[in-house]
Write a structure and sequence with these properties.
The strands form five sheets. The chain has an eight-stranded mixed β-sheet with strand order 6-9-10-22-21-20-17-11, with helices on both faces. It has a five-stranded mixed β-barrel with strand order 1-2-3-5-4. The protein has 17 helices and 22 strands. It is an alpha+beta fold.
């Protein structure tokens, strides 16, 4: 046997046993008469001990040639450690080595294979197979495995069937940019990689598979951020003969089960919040509800006082930073500079300080009397010791700007800890949003989402269609959208109406989605679904900001795999077989 135990298995009850371990050298400490080796595998680290003059001369000689990341097999006896290490699961024992076999030496690794590594992101991505040996990274993938295992068990217990859907599909509009794949057997034609299995899971409902799920790869060719990858994973689900409430209850149950089994945390019942309220009180459709600071509108209270910034504004809105009246002018200036950053875009920040002695002072004192400031404080329900921060401008930009300020303050005040969890459902999104530049309606969710009021949708004037709510819902955890879905359209005439409003001609709709429209004429049941961002759920459970930490072989922010050097050019012969050619690249300045 190449091993009798793993490097994380041995305890005091194994003392006296002869064992064989295999793994990688994490560290060697040679003290002359004594040599200690930390041997590592995915299960942990075991300390090995060799003592000069104790009958293991050959093993001592081999030990003195070892370097980091050598792969070994060792044989020896488990003994009790003299200097125990309570930080290690194997810290009460060590193995007194009788023999060492080197399976493979190793070059000096380009960075320390330790949790506190000295390797930068790009270097670790280039040598990802080494980075994956670090315990902190390995545990992320173990967590990912646990999330998948619990998900499958929960859905299986509720009669869901896992069905794989195609990866090579048809390119369709109304989403992010597709990745496309040329077809050698069909020259001049292309497959697309799926952004989601949306139409296929609806077809499975038409087929009578009333509960489907899939932990599935999806692909979107879009600019990357810390929480995005060109290929990512969804927990994709669909149900027949259900309404919105059925879907929310089913998948709230899944999320609560995941928290229970993966984190040991009992997630409370998840509240519901209207999209309109999320925008009104938090300035975004994925509010972080771990802390308060809900928006307070002041427009009616502060206009007409000859302060031009307020008088010219469409909305004046603020937040109450409780207990922050002691903020210095420098700290307030930092917040002002924060909201004025180009990516946020506010023109400035007004503050009202409610001092501990009960006095009120503001950055706009010359326009507002003490009574005015008292009215403002009352609107905020402020108390001595509070600091009120106010932005003004048009509704579309001011609320998102204040959202950024709220989140920044929440972080500065320690109100957004990684080990605190707050979830909610956001419901009743608008069905459509108007594109001013294109002068047409766009689906806020996707073209297959049903309106809440079908009758109104079919008969309201074109210009009033923005009043219609969608039968759609998102789950938000700690200010991150982790999943979303909708009740689907299952009637051909309603689906045709939606395509028409989105600018499809009948011919375009038939060319793109004719297979789905045809299926609706063969007894399509009412159905609804949801998809969770699997990688995002893992990052929340793991307390990380980036989904990349929970993907075995991720891409960098340029969409490249620097380990295998992909994407890359292909052989000209392959290009000829595919009947494709590349245009010259534009010259760089």
């Amino acid at each position: 046997m190449l091993r009798t135990h793993t490097c994380g298995a041995l305890r005091m009850e194994h003392v006296g046993q002869d064992v064989t371990l295999s793994g990688w050298v994490a560290r060697v400490r040679d003290k002359g008469g004594m040599i200690w080796i930390d041997l590592r595998d995915r299960y942990g680290i075991t300390q090995l001990m060799l003592e000069e003059g104790k009958g293991n001369k050959e093993a001592i000689e081999i030990a003195r040639t070892l370097g980091r990341e050598y792969v070994l097999k060792v044989q020896g006896k488990v003994i009790e450690r003299v200097a125990k290490n309570p930080k290690m699961s194997t810290g009460d024992i060590e193995v007194k080595v009788a023999a060492i076999q080197v399976f493979n030496p190793s070059k000096v690794p380009p960075f320390l294979i330790e949790d506190d590594t000295d390797g930068g992101d790009e270097l670790r991505m280039r040598y990802r197979y080494l980075d994956l040996r670090r315990d902190i990274v390995r545990q992320n993938l173990v967590l990912r495995h646990q999330v998948a295992k619990v998900t499958r068990a929960y859905l299986d217990s509720h009669q869901f069937i896992e069905v794989e859907t195609p990866v090579l599909i048809k390119s369709t509009p109304e989403g992010a940019r597709d990745f496309v794949v040329p077809s050698r057997m069909n020259p001049g034609q292309f497959y697309a990689l799926p952004q989601s299995p949306q139409t296929f899971k609806q077809l499975l409902m038409v087929s009578g598979f009333d509960r489907y799920y899939q932990i599935v790869k999806c692909f979107r060719d879009e600019d990357l951020r810390a929480d995005r990858q060109p290929e990512f994973t969804q927990i994709d689900c669909e149900m027949s003969f259900v309404e919105q409430e059925d879907v929310l209850n089913m998948f709230e149950g899944l999320v609560r089960q995941l928290f229970k089994e993966v984190k040991g945390f009992d997630l409370p019942e998840v509240p519901r919040m209207l999209y309109a309220d999320a925008m009104k009180y938090y300035g975004c459709d994925k509010p972080d509800t771990r802390f308060g600071m809900r928006f307070v509108e002041l427009t009616d209270l502060v206009q007409g006082k000859n302060f031009q910034v307020f008088d010219a504004a469409e909305i004046i809105v603020g937040i109450n930073a409780t207990g922050c009246a002691g903020y210095t002018r420098k700290e307030i200036d930092e917040l002002t500079d924060f909201v004025k950053r180009p990516q946020i875009g506010a023109k400035g920040l007004v503050w009202v300080r409610y001092a501990a002695d009960g006095t009120l002072k503001s950055s706009v004192d010359k326009f507002y009397t003490e009574e005015d400031l008292k009215s403002i404080a009352a609107r905020f329900e402020a108390k001595p010791g509070d600091l009120m921060l106010v932005l003004a401008g048009d509704v579309k930009s001011t609320r998102p700007q204040l959202n950024e300020l709220r989140l920044e303050l929440g972080s500065r005040l320690g109100l957004r800890p990684k080990d605190k969890f707050s979830a909610l459902w956001v419901i009743d999104f608008p069905l459509l949003e108007w594109g001013e530049e294109e002068k047409r309606w766009f689906a806020m969710h996707h073209p297959f989402t049903s309106p809440k009021d079908v009758e109104a949708f079919m008969h309201l004037p074109f210009e009033r269609l923005g009043e219609i709510n969608a039968n759609a819902y998102d789950m938000v955890i700690n200010g991150v959208e982790v999943g979303g879905g909708s009740v689907r359209i299952y009637d051909r005439s309603l689906q045709n109406k939606m395509f028409e409003l989105l600018g499809f001609t009948p011919e375009e709709a038939k060319a793109q989605f004719g297979f789905l429209l045809d299926a609706f004429e063969f007894g399509a049941p009412p159905h609804a679904g949801l998809a969770f961002g699997f990688d995002r759920l893992c990052s929340i459970f793991g307390g990380a900001d980036s989904i990349r930490d929970f993907i075995a072989f991720p891409k960098n922010n340029s969409g490249r795999d620097v380990m295998i050097d992909s994407p890359s050019e292909i052989n000209p012969k392959q290009m000829d077989e595919l009947y494709i050619a590349t245009k010259p690249l534009p010259q760089k300045n």
